[in-house]
Amino acid sequence: xxxxxxxxxxxxxxxxxxxxxxxxxxxxxxxxxxxxxxxxxxxxxxxxxxxxxxxxxxxxxxxxxxxxxxxxxxxxxxxxxxxxxxxxxxxxxxxxxxxxxxxxxxxxxxxxxxxxxxxxxxxxxxxxxxxxxxxxxxxxxxxxxxxxxxxxxxxxxxxxxxxxxxxxxxxxxxxxxxxxxxx
Length: 183
Ligand code: S3P
Known about the structure:
54% of the residues lie in helices and 13% in strands. With 183 residues, the chain is an alpha/beta fold. The chain has one domain: 3-Layer(aba) Sandwich (Rossmann fold). 32% of the residues are buried. The structure holds shikimate-3-phosphate (S3P). Shikimate-3-phosphate (S3P) is lined by residues 20, 24, 43, 54, 88-90, 131-132, 134.
């Protein structure tokens, strides 16, 4: 599909949720371009706003300090519309965030199996420098965190798009198809 696509339904924003390395940022960029909307990478805005990497914020203020900043930014994003927002993988942990996400747009969950995610994370040269460990690290961490978070992702998602076998532009187009046929 080419050109900018106008949607019939007024859906507010599109929030991409899912674990690290499911392609949220890349898909958000492509989908925003297809819709002529603003692309927001929540983690990038947070790092710019606070002048530190997320890894450093975790080290200096703990995970709770990071989550407070993440929640404040989400509140800010929700004041606007026509944005495709790539959220951080842990945004779903707080109930207040979950309520906000559901109230301010449509939530799409990008998925992939743990092995694929592990390979992608290992292949990302910025991963070590930007992403703090969440538990024990490695594949075991991915499996553990996915087990805890999947019910939360699931409860929020209007749609789920599997990304293991699809390149980001195909994921973006799959979402666009669904958006276009809604409303
Ligand atoms: C996190 C995922 C990261 C970032 C932070 C915490 C998580 O975002 O928000 O490191 O808890 O899963 P990405 O999903 O964009 O890597």
